[in-house]
Each structure stands twice: as structure tokens, then as C-alpha cells.
Model the fold of this input.
Amino acid sequence: MKLSPQWIRDFVDLPVDDGQLAEDLTAVGIAVEGISGSGADMVFEMEIGTNRPDAMNHYGVAREAAAIYDLPLKTLSAHQPSTESASGVAFPISVEEPQLCPRFSARAIRGTKIQPSPEKTAHRLQLLDQRPISNAVDATNYVLWEMGKPTHVFDLDLLEGGRLIIRHAKNGEKLKTLDGVDRTLSSEDLVVADAKRPVGLAGVMGGFDTMITDKTRNVLIESAWWDPLTVRKTARRHGIHTDASHRFERGADFESTILSCDLVAELILASGGGKLVGNVVDVASERLDQAPIILRVAEVHRILGGNLKTVEIFSILKKLGFGLIPEGQAGIEFEVHIPSWRLDVEREIDLIEEIARLHGYDKFENSLPSYAGAVVELPDSRTDATLRQRALALGYNETVSLSFISHEDAERFSTASVLELENPLSAEASVMRTTMVPGMLDMLAWNLNRDIDHARLFEMGRVYEMQRGERTEPERLCLAATASAVAAGVSLGSMPDARRRNSDSQSATEEFRAFKGDAENLLGVFSYDQLSFDRETPEYFHRGRSARALMDGVPVAYFGQIAEAVRISRKLRQDVYLAEFDLAQLHARGLRKVVYTPLAKYPAVERDFSFIFPDQVEFGTMQETVQSLRISELCEFQPVEIFRGGSVEPGKYSMLLRARLQSDQGTLRDEQISAWSRRIVDTLQKLGGVQRA
Amino acid sequence: MAYAVPKLTDYSADVLDKSAADLRAALKQEVLSVQSPDQWKTFRDRWLARKNGIVTQVNDLWLKSAPKGAKKLAGQTVNDLKKDVEEAAEGLRKSWETGQTIQVAYLGAEVPAAALEAYARDKVGPVDISLPGIQRPIGAEHPVMKTSREMCAVFQRLGYSIAEGPVIETDYYNFEALNFPPNHPARDTQDTVFIAGQQSKPQRERLLLRTHTSPVQIRTMEKMRPPIRIVIPGTVHRNDPPDASHSPMFHQIEGLAVDTNITFGDLKGTLDHAMKEFFGSSVKTSFRPSFFPFTEPSAELYISCFICGGSGKRGKDPCRPCKQTGWIEILGCGMVDPNVFEFVKDHGYNPKKVSGFAFGMGADRVALLKYGVDDIQLFFSGDVRFLRQWA
Done:
């Protein structure tokens, strides 16, 4: 909203320059956000809060300035123009909805000439980016920007039946508004109508058919007070936002209807000539007086702190136009009377804000309150911090992705029922995410498309689901990495030559193991007895290279390579790995509690076993069978080397296994070790393994 | 004059002792003068070579030629000398390899490590220390999350506990209980994203995406009686099309303190302290009147620009983050509106007895300012080149 400091100066003789004025207004909450132009054409870009319609005009801002500098504010009055007939009704008005239109004032002018506005009026409107139209229309606009009251002018001769009626529209009734749009009204719309039809949408916009034209000679000026909620509903229903509706919605000055009529009349008569007809019409069915408010000095101090003196409080409110009558004990309480332009002031706290605002916020002394409570952590904050630290330590960068996904993605990447948006930003973002996977894939694609091959990302956050008719926001952790990044991680570890892509089974295995290791590292922070894996993963994972993790039989995560079909459809330039953790399940388990295990006193012995196995025998089976031997001294059983091809016939693979044996009772003897080794070999042979020489 | 092994004619104890002392003195002098591996090799050869080394000479001249009666004493002397020479040579070598000085017992002195580097150079050659280190990848905290956590930590140190609430909220918590009555114009400023299919419900139960973290104020007050101090980090949404300074999703950090004694001065003092903690002790704060339905009096907090120091200029150029004003708007705040307390009155929040303040800021905006990022979209791109800058 633009205002002209020069125009403000019409109403108060300011001792400061425009720059200082801007600063001082901003300090009391009438914010000047920017200054443009210079000299008399300088313009302030204003930011006025929704609660201050009274300050959305020059006189209102002048009133604030007068209060700031403690200067007199000039009275705003119209020069009473001479009337054709000093008495009698200018134009009959009947208000059928007095609740929604408690006041309607009007004036009629006959014999005026519609022409361009005088230079001064036009120039001032142009400064505010308002387009001058004609003297009569500009007069209403000028008055709106001068003192804030919206008015409307009709071509009096086009009003049929010689009267105006304020009534609800009939359902389906038509009105072409000033913007040229044909509108169909509803019975909830309030209209100004002549004897035959609506001629204006109350407080929002006038009608096209009764507007001022070059041919207009006789003018009816309308200045009413409309119910804010009714105006707002109508404006929203028809998708119109006007300077008038903006002010009526927020509450206009009930006492300014006649003054605004007179000011408009004065401008029209001065520019186009003509005569006033009759007296001003003023239908005030109900007065809109605000009840006085009791202000207690003690309450001012309780809220604001510090020690504002009673005289200061008194003086500030006076300057802003409030009427004060001391109540009860002198200097302790006041009865404050609210000026008609301050509909926002309804309560004691509103007055306290006025006092603080004008006193100057920065003048209140800073203090720190005492406190008798304790700081408590959220139940899962330690768990989440630990997980985050681990993910970061493993080289994954923390990311944040948007909460919206497409219907299509929601269906492809989750089975949960979605929450749909009423007014989405786009079709691709029309539901709340039920999964983090599509967002993560998009971020990987973003990186790959910019030749960033090594990307490791993670996100912790919420997904949004409907469960049994209730909305829920389960927390998830999603981990993702490009195959290059996973392979680079492998080369940092023990396995050399991991730059090979996973087209061969060995590097595929190594990459999967490296990524599985990261998943295990995260799962390892939680408390569980048994961690197991199976192949039950959603379809967007690669069939042979993905796994589900279960803690004590309860599924807690999926991880692995993304299915080739998904990779292609997301245009990912290389394979990617992804893991999803169900944090709700994991939170329920809590962090693993560390209990110290005494260090071994006796040396460990390692034995290697070289086998050829058929492909269908997996390591997990070997491990299980060997564990079922219940050799308590067996403390580790690991695959050391896996090899396919070469001299190994197709369908089989070579596996070097290593057992580590240790006792806490004493040093192991050779015959013991040989006996256990034999049992291990026997059981592995039963699985179909053939021991190599 | 280099030491030479004298022939002995007299094998008495006195002469043997004196000859041994002379030899040791020479040994000490020569050990201390060794400065390089080459010199060490020369030293070793001169003293310990099988053929004609000093130790061999001593053996020949002092022991082999000794008369029968003197053999025992001469043997002992020569053995002791041999041990000392070997110890000295070994000590020298070790001192180079370990870089430490070695106490050589009989010398009563430490062997210097003077030739360490020369020795190492000789053995494997120098490495190019200007080659870049091979770094294990370390993940980076997201700048907005980092900002949010750091800001929350500032308030945690002031006695605030973290609180959270749902992203999908009801109209009641997002608006009504925060003193945005139905159909109030203040709702227009919030550009709300609504959940579909809510029309059949009463207005206060209709679901929407919370437009601010403020609903958690109400939810927390419903659960906890005063006094409370909470700080609320969280995701919020608005129907703002994405551009360099807008995102339909962003993050807020909200705060609330309610007690029997909280004043506007406390609000100012707390936030002044927090801003100094977060941005540095030299920042100044200024409060300007504003309007929020759920606080009164309401304020916007400005801090002196931490980039230009409040001057509005960077050298000769205008300072962009503060638009040359020297001040940056950081957050909105105010005293809790009594109407808000009315909604939780039954939970111990009688506006006649308690007062409080609330504040809220955009974590993304603070991060943009703090790190000088010029496009908010980067925060949500997952671009590793961008994220790694915080590693």
C-alpha cells in the first residue's frame, strides 16, 4: 500500500523530514517498508497490519504522526456546499437488513459535468498507482485514500423506481459488476438495489449498469457501514478483493459516513459544478458505540513490566484520541472511551498494546524471568540423535524433501491410504507423502543428472497416513546411496578393486554387503536379541538384491538395490541402494544398553575351511547349522572369500570360511580344536559342501 | 689425532685400566661426532669390523698377546670394552630409527638423534606432503536442521523443553484456539493448504496442514499446567509456489513461556539473549510493533545486520541481506493474547493470573541469512555439492 508523505502533511505540521517520519512511524507499528521518488512526489510503501484499517489512509497516518510528535491534528471537514433545496429527502433509502447495514448515508448532486479530475487530484492518485477515471469516480477514490472510508457513486438517473433498498439478493439474481463480470448472486449476498434490480454488491463493488459515464448529470453518493463478515463472505464467494472490501472487512469508521459523503460531494461540485439536492440522507438504524474499557495501571505493569508512570499512560492514550475518565481511586484505574475509528480496540490488553507501542518497545528494559521448572527431553530425542550421528559418520548427508508426492508415486511406493490435498500446488504434489522413497529417488536423480556420481543421503522425518479413519504421522528414516558411492566405501574397507560395477556377481555381492553393513550399523543402536533377514521386500526393490530386516521376528527395515524397472522409470543413470527404517518400531525397542564383557584371557585360534557349495546353499544356512552344533568356544564364523567361475563349475561356488575359537577357561589344545573342526566340516558336508584339498 | 690401539708391554691392572679409559674416551668423542648414516657406517666399520676393527685389534693386541697370568684380567677388560662399543653403535642406530635419544650407560650421556631425518631419507625417500589427504566421507548435517537444532539448544540452555505436534492439524488448533475466529481476515495471510474431503465436518474439526508451529502451544498447554517453557521445532506448509525465497514447505521454531510473572521486558530480554547467543554477542536487537492474532502486544524482532555490522554497506557496495538498512527481521513475537489463554483456562491458564510470551521464526530463513544462501530451493534439492559445504 502506497501513501504520500506530502499528503500526510496536509493534516499535521511535521517538524521532521520524510526519512525521519518513515523511521518514527515504523517504530510505532505503522511500518514504512520502502521509500521511492523524491520531493513532493516521494511515496512510502506501507505495511499496515490487518487490525489497523484506520491507518490505511493519509489522515489515519497523520493521526499517528500527531501522536508521536505530540502535535495537533487538523480537523477534516467539507466546506458545506450550497443546496438546491435546503430541506427534504434527497433520495429515499430503505434498509431491510439493519443488522448488516446499521448505517447508510447518501447525498445527491444534480447538474454536474463528468470530466477528467483536476490536476492535483489526478496527480495524487497516480502517485499511489491509482488510475484516474473521471472527477466523480476519482472523488470517491481520493476520499478513500484521504480518510479511509469507501464510498460509491451512482448515475442517479439510471436508478429505477427513485429509491434504494438494502436487502439480501435473491438466489440466482444477476448483477454485472463494475469490472464487467456478470455475476449470479446467492441469497447470502447483501446488495444495494433499486426498485427493480441489484445495483451494487454491498461493500464490495458497484454495478456496471448504474455507473458514472460521460453522460451522467445527476449523481448519488453512497457511504454506508457494512457488516464486516457479510462483506468478507460475499467478496470471497465472488473472488473479488477491492480496496473497499479490504476496509469494510476490517471495520470502517461508523462516524465517518456523512463526512465522507460531504467530502466526495465537495470534490465533485468543485470540479464538475452542479448543486446538492436536499439534505444528507442518514439512515442509522443502530448505533455502533463501543463500550468503554476499564484500564488498570497495575495490569499495564503486570504485562509490560517496568514502571510506566500514570501520567505517561494517560498522555499516550489522549494523544491517540482515546477519552479518559479517572475511575475509583485516582491514578489507579481509568474508564477509557474508544474513538469510532478504532474498532480493533475492544479489551484492556488492546489499550496496553497502544501504550507500549507509542511509548516505544525499545524503551522497555530487558529482563530475564526466573523459572522453577526442569528441562525434559522428548522420549526419542536421544535415539534420533544417535541414529543421526551414525548416519553422518557413515558418510550420509542429511537431507530434507518436500511432504507432497503424486498419487502415482504413493501407489507405487506404499500401500498406506493417503491424505489428499484440497488445493494442491500441482498434480505432481497432490497427496501427503506416505513414503520417503520417491523423494529420495528424486534427489539421487538430481545428483546423477549433474554428474555427481557419489551421493549418500539420508532423511529422518514423517510420512502421513490414514489408519482406520484417523490421521497418523509415523516417523521414518531413509538411507540412500548411488552404486558408485557404495563401491567407493568398499574400497576404503578390506575389499580391493571395488570400482567394478555390479555387473558381475562378486562386486554385486560386495556392494550389497557394504550397504547392508551401513544398515546394520544403524540397526545396531537398538536393543534386540536376534536380528534376521529375509527376502520379503516391496516390489520397487531388486528381487535378488534386497532384504527385510527383522528384530526378534518383527520387521523393522527394508534395504537393497532398487529394481531395474524403477531405475529406468526414474531415469537414474546408475544403480542406487536404498533403505527404509520404521522408526516407530525401532523407537519402541529403545537404545541398546551397553554391558561390559570381560576381555579374553586366553588366545584365540583360527581355522579356515575351503569348500565348494552349490549356489542354492547360502551362507546364512551354513551359519545356522554350524551354530546348531553348540560349540560354545566358537566365537566367530565368517565368510572370508567367495569365488565363482574359473575352475569352479557353473552352479557352484567356492567359499573360504573362517572359524575363530576361544575359551575363557584355558588355552585350547590341538585335539580339542581338531575335534570341533571335524564336526564343522561334517555338518557343512551334509549341506552339500565339498571340502577342497 | 685419531685414536690408535697401543701395543701393551705391561699387562698390570693399572695399565689395562688406563688403556681402557683412553679407548672409552676416544669412543665417546667419536660417537658424539657421528651426524649422518654415512658417518655411522664409517664408525661401525672402524670399531667393529671383523678385519682390523678396533675391537678386533684390542683382542689381538691386548688379549691374545697377553702372558698367561694376565689373560684373565685382560680378557675381562676386553670383553667389557667390546660390550660398550657394541652398545654405543646400537644406541646410535636406534636413536635414528626412533627419533629418541638413547641413554648409553657407560657414556653417561644420551646419544643424539641428530641424524634421524637423514637416516629416514636415506632409507625410503621423502613423501610429497602437499598431496591431498585421502578423506573418508563424513556426512553433513542439513543446514536448516542444524540451524533449528542450534537455535533450540540456545533455548534449552535457558530452561526450555522441546515440544512437538502434528503437521496435519485441525482448524481449531491452527486457527480458532489461536484467536483466528472463523472468517477472520487474518486467516488470509496464512495461505493454507487444506486436506480434501473435510466439508462434512464442523469447521473446527476440518483438517489442514498447519501453517505455523503455534498449534503446539495450545496442545502443550492442554497437557501441562503452568509454569511452562517450550521450544517447538517443526515442519509447516503454505500454499506458496516455490521460488528463490518461497517454498510450500518450510520449518519453524516456536517458543512459549507462561508463568505468573512474565512481562514484555522478559520477552525482550530472553530474545535479546538468544540472538546474542546464536548470532554473536555484538548483535543488537530492536522490537517493532506488529500484529498477530495470538499475541498482544505483538512485535517483530530485528537484529543489527551481522553481515555489515549494521552499517548497511559492505565496503563500497550496498549490503543486500539487510537491504542497506542495517537491520534484519528475524522473528515475530508478543505477549500471549488473553483470548488464547481462555481456550486453555481449564488447564490452569487463567489470564488474570498468568501471563506469557511466544515467538516464532523460520529456520530456513535464518539459515539463508546465516550462511548467505541465495535460493531456498537448494535446501530441498539433496544436491551433494551444496550439502557437503556443511561437512
